# Entry
Amino acid sequence: MATIPQDKINKIMRQANPADDIDVSLDELESFGDKASIKKMFKSIKNYNEMLEEKITFVNQDLTDAIPFTKENLYLLCAYSGSGKSTVAANVSHPLWKQGKKSLVISNEESEQDVMFRIASLELGYNFNEYKKGRMPKAQQKQCMILFPEIAKFVKVVDVNYKSGLTTKVEGVKKILEMVKDHDYSCAMIDYYQLIKTSIENPQAGSYDVLNNFRIWLGQYIKRANIPIVVFAQLHSLGKRNNKDLDNRIKHCPDIYEPSTVVVEIVPNFEEHTSDFIIHKDRFGFAGMKITCGFDRGRFVPLDREAMEKIQQQKIDIIEDKVGIAYDTTDKHPQVPDL
# Structure
């Protein structure tokens, strides 16, 4: 089989993507500030203000107030393994679905049915983890599944099984994002960054090279796309990477921090049924802020009085389940079974 020279491949790629054109003329530079360029800037400002006025929800009202969810922005959400990245992704999609806004979930870890099940569980107040553990009653599962057609009108999923793992290939993820950048989507999510492992064009590339290639491309993409991008990333534990700075704890390619306009660390408190959203970087001026949300059956909710009462009840329910307390219906006194 004949091998195509690299310079020819580069030429073909430049032709396929005009954004890679590096020819610059003096006339092009001097044209800045003319009537056409000023008109273009005014139009961009108008479009940006219109998007802000749409008030697209980012998870819940507290987070939306602190982090405007708009185009031209890359939102990097970081967490340790098992700390809720996919749960947050569902919490981004759910309110958008309820508002009739379309979102795209590029998942290289979960199946499409699990993504849909998470969102349906949020809507019905069920615990998705109970389904995964085989504990959710069939009647509740059926209720979730009935919602799939309605959810799918606004939540589009490209999962880990799509075209033999296309979502794990850097060129595949780029192609998917290119398809939606000018259409009627409100956002696109990648769950998650480190599982973009390989390159079709460069099969020998290591994890860092693949991810670095993608983060450079993302920095350019967000400036020409009509939608915000949310990228979920996994963190090293402090034990493995003893540095409190978040950009040093991002696995494999911490350079993704650089093009991100908003960077948030998600820190769950399983005992208190809350999660902290710590803003490490923010072009909107909220860097250093910590927003604590209640965690109610998979949903991140503002920590108001109602949420606090639910959290307290959840704690009681868990204690009762663990201890095995049964209540006598006649005298209301607890009966503790023999241990």
